[in-house]
Amino acid sequence: MIDPVSRYEYPEAWVSLCRDEGDLELVSRGMAVLTSDGKVLKRGFTTGTTAAAACLAAIASLGTDDLRSVEVRTVAGIPVQVDVEAGNGKASCRKYSGDYPDDVTAGIEFRASFVRFQSQAALDVGAGIGRWDRDTPRYRAGEPAISTTALECILSSISEACRARGETGALVHLEAVDGARIALKTLNGRIGVVGGISVLGSTGFVEPWDDHLGQDSIERVKRAEKAVVTTGRVGLRFARLRYPDREVVLVGANIKAAMESRKEGIVLFGLPALIIKFIDPSVLEGSGYRTVEELVMSEKGPEVLRSSVLRFKSMYPGHGIVIIDRAGQVMEGVP
To answer: Please, what is the Cα angle at 211 between 207 and 213, to 5 degrees?
Structure first.
C-alpha cells in the first residue's frame, strides 16, 4: 500500500496489523496514515485547503441557501470533501485538524463571500489573515501571508467553481475569524507576519505528526541499511525522488536523536531552516536577519551554507548532509 500524499510504501507488516478495512481505505485515499503498530491516524486539512473550500463554496452556493459540502483538489492532487455552511454567495468553513492534537489553528473559521464575476480568479484578503511587515526573499511588505501553493489551490478552486457556472473567473473576499488573536499562539510575530494567521499548505493536508516523530522513526533509522532523514514534508518529497533506494524517514526537529542513533550511513536532507539552526543554534545572532531563510537568501548565504556543511561534517564525520531549496535544488552538501 502506497500513501498517495507522501508516496511512502507502507511495509506489509504494518498493513497486516490493521484489522479495520474502513481505516485501510482511508489510508489508501491519503486521508489517514498507517503506523507501525497498525493504528490509523487521520490527516486534517491545512488552512490553505480550508480557505479554498470556503471560496469555492461562496460561488457554488449562488442561487441556493443550503450548501453543506464541496470537493476541493488539494495541492497533492487528491480531491477531498470538505464540510461547509454556505448559501447565496456567502460561505463558512472551519479547519479540521484530524488526529493532530496540538494544532493551534484547529477549528479556525474562514468566511468567504462572492463579490463579482470577472475575467479571472482573484482574491480580496480581509481581516484575520496576516501580512508581511517587511520585504523577504519570497514576499513583499504588505502582502498577505498566503503561501504560493495555498494561493494556487484557492485560485484554482475559484476557477473550478466559475467553470461549473459557465464563467471564466470571479473576485472573492476571504477573512479568518478571530485570526489576529489566534496568530498570537503561533510563531508569526517572530518571522514578520502581523495582524493574523498565515494561510499555508504544501500538500493540503495536516499530518498527525505523532507517528512520524515518535520512537519508531528513530528505530527505522537504526534498522535501515542506508537512511535519509529529513525535517519536513518538502524534504520528504524530494528525498524520496532523489534516493529511491534508501529508507527516507521524517524526523522533524529530532535531528540530534536521529544522527546519534548510528555512527555512519545517514544523509541529513532538507530545507535550511531547521538544519542550519541545529548545526549552529546561534546562527542568527548579530546577523540582522529574523529567519534562516532570509539569511540564506542574502549575500551571506553561500558562506553560511558552506560553513554549516563543514561544521556538520566535523560533528558527524560518518554521515552526509544535503541542503535544498523549495524547488528541490541542492544548495550545498556532502552526500
So the answer is: 90
Q: Which residues of 156-181 are buried (b: 16+ CB within 10 A; e: fewer)?
A: bbbbbbbeeeebebbbbbbbbeebbe
- Residue 156 is assigned to a structural domain of this protein: yes
Task: Give the predicted TM-score (pTM) of the model.
Answer: 0.80
Scanning the structure block, which residue is given the C-alpha cell 493504528? 39
* CATH code for position 200: 3.30.2110.10
Amino acid letter for position 301: G
Binning pLDDT at 50, 70 and 90, where does residue 290 land?
confident
Same domain, 161 and 227: no
Q: Would you say residue 1 lies in a domain?
A: no
For residues 219 and 328, state if they share a domain.
yes
Q: How far apart are CA 196 and CA 275, in angstroms?
A: 27
Residue-level length of the chain: 335
Q: Do 55 and 171 share a domain, yes or no?
A: yes
Same domain, 159 and 294: no
Question: 118-140 pLDDT, tens per residue?
Answer: 999 999 999 999 999 988 878 99
Set of cell numbers at residue 154: 484557492
Domain assignment of residue 183, yes or no: yes
> Per-residue confidence at 326, pLDDT binned at 50, 70, 90?
confident
Which domain covers residue 50, as residue numbers? 45-205
State residue 209's pLDDT score. Answer: 58
Nine-digit cell at 125?
484578503
Domain membership of residue 190 (yes or no) is: yes
| Mean pLDDT along residues 213-224 | 74
**What whole-number distance in Å separates Cα of residue 250 and Cα of residue 88?**
44
DSSP 144: B
Percent of the chain at pLDDT > 70 equals 98
CB 35 within 8 A of CB 67: no
Residue 31 has what DSSP assignment?
Answer: S
Residue after which a domain boundary falls, among 205, 234, 253: 205
CA distance linking residue 54 with residue 136, whole number of Å: 28
